[in-house]
Design a protein that fits this description.
The chain contains eleven helices and eight strands. By secondary structure, it is an alpha/beta fold. The C terminus is likely disordered. Strands 1, 2, 3, 6, 7 and 8 form a six-stranded parallel β-sheet that branches.
Length: 253
């Protein structure tokens, strides 16, 4: 009987009465939750030939081999690293900087930032910033895990002196593991070789394929640049079709 009464009350109460009161100084803000996030991708209308090669989620056990490969081909890349991995592999961060690569912020431990409150978001960014600065890096960009963000996260990153950066060519190397498959995904038929390319240096298959990918991109006219160089040369942002959508499935918590 009690459950029946509660169910009837819920059905009879107007929907407006169930909304969170806007005058309370705490709790969710409906306008912020429903606001459309700004477009952030700098992508496919980029200056012809500019290719920013980026790697997420490292450093890891395979990153040293990747750095050797990049050095052999004289390619400068941009690494969006996790704070917890930077703490585990500080020498790799130092080598990235010594070799002339950019080292940027990808959060501490790769959460979906939209699911965190402001304090937790700030900690993810600030702890990673502190770790990277202690190793000699000066990050300028923040790439949200899964590409998932909202307007508040854009504002928070700016307060920390960071600009949000996504990508225009997703290799989906967590799904594809060969040179031909990676190239088929990042270079659709009829599209030129330019943009911000997303890879992950935590996959050994990516490292194994990367030499062939870079060689072929170079033959197709890529001028390899860092994100800073790419951003400076291509200052007008281009919209993403679904800026809030994760770039890959979010694993269960």
């Amino acid at each position: 009987m009690r459950r029946l009464i509660i169910a009837l009350c819920v059905l009879l109460v107007p929907q407006g009465a169930l909304a969170w009161p806007s005058w309370l100084p705490f709790g969710p803000k409906p306008s912020a939750l429903s606001a459309k996030p700004p477009s952030l991708d700098f992508g496919d209308k980029a200056k012809a030939g500019d290719c920013a090669i980026t790697f997420d989620d490292g450093p890891g056990p395979h990153t040293g081999a990747l750095l050797d490969l990049l050095a052999a081909r004289k390619v400068k890349a941009t690494f969006f690293v996790l704070g917890q991995h930077a703490r585990r592999y500080p020498d790799l961060i130092r080598r990235m900087l010594t070799d002339g690569h950019e080292v940027e912020n990808h959060s501490w431990d790769h959460p979906d930032m939209r699911k965190l409150d402001e304090a937790a978001r700030r900690k993810e960014i600030e702890d990673t910033l502190a770790e990277l600065k202690a190793l000699g890096a000066e990050p300028h960009y923040f790439r949200p895990p899964y590409g998932a963000y909202d307007p508040d996260l854009v504002g928070l990153a700016r307060k920390e002196g960071l600009e949000l950066v996504l990508w225009s060519r997703d290799s989906e190397d967590w799904r594809y593991h060969t040179v031909s498959a990676l190239e088929g995904n990042i270079l659709p038929v009829g599209q030129g070789a330019h943009g911000i390319f997303l890879f992950h240096d935590i996959h050994d298959s990516t490292i194994a394929a990367m030499g062939g990918v870079l060689d072929d991109l170079g033959k197709r006219g890529c001028r390899f640049v860092t994100v800073w160089q790419f951003r400076s040369a291509n200052a007008t942002p281009q919209p993403l079709a679904q800026p809030q959508a994760p770039d890959r499935p979010i694993p269960p918590q």
